[in-house]
């Protein structure tokens, strides 16, 4: 990701949403469940990207990532995602760096082999920057392929960033595409 430049609102949170990829590619050739392909509709690598625009490291543990499914065909799923780091690396985002939060489909039945790890995720989504941290959510199997609201909020409740994506509004068109965001001049909205 590129540095989106200086932020005009000095009261703004140093973190904001920069990319949402809610509809992963078909990875049924690469991953199996009980010896059978997982199926083309199983999203294994949905993700949200956040950017630290400050000159100092920011610990993502001081933030909450909210997910609210707004797809009328699915039950509401308004929750705070539980974010973890791989191998005890911690959730610190270096200055002027993006971090990716992988909405990692957990292998709840223990039958999916091989299961993608951090290296497979990085390769699968084309991440070439080894310095960009990857964290993962453990309590959401995937994101809606139709519409949802993503919010980034500081622990003290101050909203840092919010975006409602919708396939019908043209935010993304096909599997594997994402919406790229920039903050508005003021407030927590994204464009």
List the helices and strands and how they pair.
Layout: E1 15-21, E2 32-33, E3 36-37, E4 45-52, E5 58-59, E6 63-69, E7 79-81, E8 83-85, E9 92-93, E10 97-104, E11 112-113, H1 118-125, E12 134-137, E13 147-154, E14 159-166, E15 179-180
Parallel strand pairs: 10-12
Antiparallel strand pairs: 1-4, 1-15, 2-3, 2-11, 4-10, 5-9, 6-7, 6-13, 8-12, 13-14
Structural notes for this entry:
The protein has one helix spanning 118-125; strands at 15-21, 32-33, 36-37, 45-52, 58-59, 63-69, 79-81, 83-85, 92-93, 97-104, 112-113, 134-137, 147-154, 159-166, 179-180. It is mainly beta. The radius of gyration is 16 Å and the shape is globular. The relative contact order is 0.27. The strands form 4 sheets. A 6-stranded mixed β-sheet has the order 8-12-10-4-1-15, with helices on one face. Mean pLDDT is 79; it is low at 1-10. It has 1 helix and 15 strands, in the order E-E-E-E-E-E-E-E-E-E-E-H-E-E-E-E. The longest helix has 8 residues, at 118-125.
Give the fraction of residues assigned to helices: under 10%
For the secondary structure, the number of strands is 15
Gyration radius, rounded: 16 Å
Globally, the shape reads globular
* Secondary-structure-derived class: mainly beta
Q: Give the neighbour order of strands across the main sheet.
A: 8-12-10-4-1-15
> How many H/I helical runs?
1
Weakly predicted, low-confidence segments? 1-10
Rounded mean pLDDT score = 79
Strand content: 35-45%
Terminus-to-terminus distance? 16 Å
**Major beta sheet, specifics?**
6 strands, mixed
The sequence of SSEs as H and E is EEEEEEEEEEEHEEEE
